[in-house]
Amino acid sequence: MTTIRVTVWNEFRHERTTAEIAQIYPAGIHAAIASALQREEGLVVRTATLDEPEHGLTADVLEQTDVLIWWGHMAHHEVADEVVERVQQRVWAGMGLIVLHSGHFSKIFKRLLGTACDLKWREGNDHERLWVVQPGHPIVEGIGEYIDLEHEEMYGEHFAIPQPETLVLVSWFSGGEVFRSGCCYTRGQGRIFYFRPGHERYPTYHNPQIQRVIANAVRWAAPTGPQTITFGNTRPLEGDQGR
Amino acid sequence: MTTIRVTVWNEFRHERTTAEIAQIYPAGIHAAIASALQREEGLVVRTATLDEPEHGLTADVLEQTDVLIWWGHMAHHEVADEVVERVQQRVWAGMGLIVLHSGHFSKIFKRLLGTACDLKWREGNDHERLWVVQPGHPIVEGIGEYIDLEHEEMYGEHFAIPQPETLVLVSWFSGGEVFRSGCCYTRGQGRIFYFRPGHERYPTYHNPQIQRVIANAVRWAAPTGPQTITFGNTRPLEGDQGR
Amino acid sequence: MTTIRVTVWNEFRHERTTAEIAQIYPAGIHAAIASALQREEGLVVRTATLDEPEHGLTADVLEQTDVLIWWGHMAHHEVADEVVERVQQRVWAGMGLIVLHSGHFSKIFKRLLGTACDLKWREGNDHERLWVVQPGHPIVEGIGEYIDLEHEEMYGEHFAIPQPETLVLVSWFSGGEVFRSGCCYTRGQGRIFYFRPGHERYPTYHNPQIQRVIANAVRWAAPTGPQTITFGNTRPLEGDQGR
Amino acid sequence: MTTIRVTVWNEFRHERTTAEIAQIYPAGIHAAIASALQREEGLVVRTATLDEPEHGLTADVLEQTDVLIWWGHMAHHEVADEVVERVQQRVWAGMGLIVLHSGHFSKIFKRLLGTACDLKWREGNDHERLWVVQPGHPIVEGIGEYIDLEHEEMYGEHFAIPQPETLVLVSWFSGGEVFRSGCCYTRGQGRIFYFRPGHERYPTYHNPQIQRVIANAVRWAAPTGPQTITFGNTRPLEGDQGR
């Protein structure tokens, strides 16, 4: 089995400014996610955060990243356009991208999807149940019929995304809403997975089923061997254009 | 505007054997649906039922049908394979097909989809809310953000269908389930829409929003001008196979 | 039938600087396309070009446009980002968009699709045959099995786009290439159609079948009645979040 | 890496009755395909043919098959409905299925797809070029931009299939036609890949690129861990249906 190199990116602000969030994620959301992934066979995991130089996403780091995981919320606008551009190029070249929760409003997600990515939301201790609608899909291997999260932030439809290439999970919320919670896309040679849960005030990333989905998604999004494509002016393959 | 010829097909058994259902649909579910459609401009509507000769779906009737609506439940097995075959051929040739509620288990739906079409269900006065996930789609024109049905039978995931070409509606149920309630497919030149609500014990087909979705779906599924396709052995379009 | 308001946008540079192109399109590509559309029932057509103030696409013009047609080639970079942003917002709100030929590299197309939109090309008098792969689709109504273009610029795969929601046409080129030539997308409430043919050195937009596809696409892309969507913080629909 | 158990099924008639075909595939098409797969790490390969009892596809064999490869042509009608039903059930339960060439008209393919699966064809030494339209997809890993087959039978559009969930390859033919040659579907928990080339009169299955695609497809179609799904009457997850 080939090794998959994962970089977990986190904004890492809430955890440093709000005591109650720091209690849930003392080393940051990225550390919690990375630590779960490190227990998986065949994954090599590093982290990067907003306040590092170039947000920790230098050309070199991206070049050595097979799958990038993205968590952001309050500081989307602080992410430099140059870095966003760099990430997009890498996705097009085959890097996998897993966008978590409030990352729906990140520059990179909106740019890759081409839509507003807006939604309804509510912080109010909703009960969430994520139903598997595509059993047999590698991303939900080992999950069972649904994931039960006793308390989570609500995200509700309409979610302004292009129709997913594959819709894997749909959430039920006790407040009366539904949400497309597990959405697959391809952009260039890169595979993208959006996964809804993970509000900073809940211990969602400590949940083993959530960790399992993220690990599965990493394997699903890992690039297939690189494919070189020729673009631009090309000569005919048939003599005299085949005539 | 061209006229669209609609045939509403109904099993028509529950309404004749159960008093409480007869009260809701005295002339049958088909009559309720047809009567709502008859108020629409440009639609010519007829009905057909299981116990008519050839289930009311003779070659002639189908030939004159642009969109067929299908409601069945307790007698799927009584539908003759020959008629199912005939309907399938017409769908392939361009006839639209709208499958309602328990029609998910009809021979024609399973044959066109190629899957088991099974699901979870519960008769228990669930509250259903059908959320629009594809606003701007012609089938949900004029519906608003969701349809609220105070009481309905529950259908829950996993619904064993191929992933819809377009998913238009997702249901929330008070018992904790979700369901892909409005699903578009193409088979041959025919457009197919599956629409979940409509248990026989509830007055669902008297609901104006439900009627609106069905009318919208009729217009969406109506065939585009017939397209003749050549199959089989064909001569090359380029001399000497282009070489 | 409701009137559909169409705006045909053209860069309008080649036709003013190259005599041989001016001969094919004396009043510009936009004029040729508009004039064909004006013969269609129920369409109201105007044009706009790059060198008009705001490229002819003021907020007011866009507000009164149901479907925008886009042809550009040598001056994509001259299109102001502010106008691109405005067009994107209108597509999200429901305006249809038909992107023609070299418009594959326009800012608006790349921004809505989220990919590089690159491809192979060759100016060399290739013979093109556009095969219908989705007969029964409204965009190819009346087209028959294929469109034959004696001479056209070649565009070849790989075309760096997201997989189309519906692929309607595939081109064969005498030089040995294929291309996904008719591609449907949805972004927000807007429907988008990419249609490949139309190099400025060939009289492609005078071809009646090409005109027919564009007219069909206009009707397909025309917005359904506007749908208001609530985004942001929302209150629960179920008391105490349903518990 | 888990072992994948592959069964290569072949009608095995042409090779026994036509000398020139026997020369190309002395031990049968199945043997040629199996022998290429046996060189792959992690695959365990067996074969089965039409004239064996139960066509070699007993319940037991299918239960021990992760991916089934299907080649048939002149004797589709001889395949027992009972075996077709059994294969369909296994696909729904997660078994992968790879349908080759003239298998497009097999009972199992038509039943799983729900369409006529008809097409244009010509035996005439066409030159075929299979273009990759989804680079980065695991099925075309290591293939490059296209596969070149000097001589093959032509299959042309329209191919009467449901739009593929993912379209991976498109063929160019020297006679002027195109064809969707690599098509992915999901039915139940099973993944299906249709791969066009492989006429019995050409040595196509000895081509290393063709062998590579088939091996890649086996890995792609291999089932994810089995997922148990509850269907039928179910109790609410929320007390008193959440009210």
Supply database-style keywords.
homotetramer, 243 residues, alpha/beta, nine-stranded mixed beta sheet, 7 helices, 24% helix
Quantity of strands of chain A, as a count: 10
Most extensive interface between two protein chains, with residue counts: A-C, 45 and 45 residues
Provide the spatial order of strands within the biggest beta sheet of chain A.
2-1-3-4-9-8-7-5-6
Structural class of chain A: alpha/beta
Gyration radius of chain A, rounded: 19 Å
Overall geometry of chain A comes to: globular
Q: Uncertain regions of chain A: pLDDT < 50 for 5+ in a row?
A: none
The proportion of residues in beta strands of chain A is: 25-35%
Which quaternary structure do these chains form? Answer: homotetramer
> Could you state the order of secondary-structure elements of chain A as H and E?
EHHHEHEHEHEEEEEHE
Biggest sheet of chain A, in brief?
A: 9 strands, mixed
Kindly, what is the distance between the CA atoms of the first and last residues of chain A, rounded to a whole number of angstroms?
48 Å
- Provide the helix percentage of chain A: 10-25%
DSSP summary: helix tally of chain A:
7
- Name the average pLDDT of chain A: 96
